[in-house]
Amino acid sequence: MHRRHRESLVQRQQQLLLRSAELRVALTRQAQSLKSPLSVVDQLRSGVQWLGRHPAWPMAALGLLSLTRPRRLLRWIPPLMGGVQLLLLLRRGLGRHTLRKP
Predict the structure, then answer these.
(1) Do residues 62 and 73 touch, judged by C-beta distance below 8 A?
(2) SS3 57
(3) Is 75 a residue whose pLDDT tops 90?
(4) CA neighbours within 13 Å on the CB side: how many for 35?
(5) What pLDDT is recorded for position 88?
């Protein structure tokens, strides 16, 4: 009886190892579908961090836009302010550590 019990445990262990390998393969396949969206998020985050480290560039662009096309700038002010408010809301909601410069 002891031998049968041990054999059944070994068989169960082999089944679990096989199932674990199958689950790892499935998880790898599913993770591949997230790779592209997460890459976009990483690029956006890098862009926001770059803008935070180099504030002169967006300010220069706004200055140039205000000189060359002031009406277009006036049209873009409300969405830009909404973006700033969203960023501030995210900082408050998620905590400052997630949106800080590295």
Answers:
(1) yes
(2) helix
(3) no
(4) 7
(5) 82
Tokens of 45: 């985050």
Q: What is the residue extent of each domain of the chain? A: 55-102
Quote the crossing angle between the two packed helices 56-68 and 70-94, to the nearest 10°: 150
- Per the listing, tokens 């590295």 go with 102
Q: What is the DSSP letter of 55?
A: T
Q: Sorting pLDDT into bands at 50, 70 and 90, what band is 1?
A: low
For 80-98, how does the pLDDT look when each residue is reduced to its tens digit (9 = 90+)? 888 888 888 877 777 655 5
The CA–CA distances, whole Å, from 24 to 7, 12, 34, 37 equal 26, 18, 16, 21
What is the Cα–Cα distance from 31 to 36, expressed in whole angstroms?
Answer: 10
